[in-house]
Design a protein that fits this description.
The structure holds 2 protein chains of 2 kinds. By secondary structure, chain A is mainly α. Helices cover about 65% and strands about 5% of the residues of chain A. Classes of the chains: A mainly alpha, B alpha+beta.
């Protein structure tokens, strides 16, 4: 890092001092090759404290378990949201579409019934009009018949007037009546035979 | 459901022993029986809140609506206790049904010159829950209460195995044979050890 300058400045390391800290990256960077003196160097593995190791492993296990669980929870939430976004509204959309369809069918049914009702009302009106026409014709006929009857009566009366007895032809009628006496003294049998009394001369 | 239910007319008044104590009321007392009410198959969707029926008391065209009101409304109300049903007589020249949904939508159903059976089929088609949906709901309801669970009567079917027919009866009522008691078995064990 500092190069040869750093070597001059820093005091040399003494082997007598115990190595309390782990070897820190002092002079060499990560990518620098190891020194020639270190070729063939085999490290003795660091001594493992079993108790510490056990505790460490347990702690790592529980930590990883917790973190994995949390991760999965969050992932599940994300997946669920994505799924809901994609397919969640599907059922509601389907239901609303079905509802619209059924309402349309209902409207069609109502329209059909309305048409039927209109035709029925029209038919009723026509029948009513026909009946009224017939009634009117009947009335006209009756009126005509009545008028004719009245005319006939009038003519009859006119004819009867000729036979009426007035002040003018009173004497003539009296004389005619006296000349032609009429006898009402006759009877009818059940068979319809007329029985007259024998006239007295 | 037939138009004119004649199922029980051949029998006497509902042939149970309590018939004498329960007098028949009304013109068609069968409408008051649970069996009749359960036979109604119109279950409205959750969005239906109110149903109004406008019909006339006279007239051939209103006959179906009158029959619907007389025979089918009790069944519908039994199956939909939370739907408000109102009847209006002689307000309009032609009979109709009107449904009020919770979205504010109003559905008009013309029922002039229709038989009561047709009316029921019509409303079942447009606003009734489908068969599959009803089955699913029933299944869900069943899932909530497991018959194999033992516990308080409020939550479970039985409290103890002694209530089941064919099992050992409750020792509080019928004392256990001596050989089945824990006391005897413990004594036996103790004596065997000795």
């Amino acid at each position: 890092m500092l190069g040869t300058l750093g070597r001059l400045v820093r005091p040399p390391v003494r082997a007598s001092l115990p190595l309390l800290l782990p070897p820190a990256r002092g002079r060499k960077t990560r990518n620098d090759p190891p020194a020639k003196s270190k070729i063939g160097r085999l490290r003795t593995p660091t001594a493992v404290d079993p108790a510490e190791m056990y505790v460490l492993m347990e702690r790592y296990k529980s930590y990883r378990q917790t973190v994995r669980a949390l991760r999965l929870e969050f992932m599940e939430e994300v997946w669920r949201k994505a799924y809901e976004q994609k397919f969640g509204r599907l059922k509601d959309v389907q239901d609303s579409e079905e509802h619209k369809e059924l309402m349309a069918w209902n409207q069609a049914e109502n329209a059909r019934l309305q048409a039927l009702r209109i035709s029925r009302l029209r038919q009723q009106e026509q029948e009513q009009a026909q009946l009224q026409e017939l009634e009117q014709m009947q009335k006209a006929r009756e009126m005509e018949a009545f008028v004719q009857e009245k005319e006939r009566e009038v003519l009859q009366l006119q004819e009867d007037v000729k036979t009426f007895i007035t002040q003018d032809n009173l004497e003539e009628k009296i004389e005619a009546a006296l000349d032609n006496p009429q006898t009402y003294n006759w009877a009818l049998t059940k068979e319809g035979q007329v029985i007259r009394t024998p006239s007295k001369t | 459901m037939q138009e004119r239910p004649g199922i029980c007319q051949s029998r006497g008044p509902s042939g149970s022993a309590a018939a004498a104590a329960m007098p028949m009321k009304g013109r068609f007392p069968i409408r008051r029986t649970l069996q009749y009410l359960n036979q109604g198959d119109v279950v409205f969707k959750n969005s239906v809140k109110v149903m109004t029926v406008n019909y006339n008391t006279h007239g051939e065209l209103s006959e179906g609506a009158r029959k619907f009101v007389f025979f089918n409304i009790p069944q519908i109300q039994y199956k939909n206790p939370w739907v408000q049903i109102m009847m209006f007589k002689n307000m309009t020249p032609s009979p109709f049904l009107r449904f009020y949904l919770d979205t504010g939508e109003q559905v008009l159903v013309d029922v002039e010159d229709k038989s009561n059976k047709e009316i029921v089929q019509h409303i079942r088609k447009i606003l009734g829950k489908k068969e599959e949906v009803l089955k699913m709901e029933e299944l869900e309801k069943k899932k909530l209460s497991h018959p194999a669970n033992f516990g308080p009567k409020k939550y479970c079917l039985r409290e103890c195995i002694c209530e089941v027919e064919g099992q050992v009866p409750c020792p509080a009522i019928v004392p256990l044979p001596k050989e089945m008691t824990g006391k005897y078995k413990a004594a036996l064990k103790a004596s065997a050890q000795d």
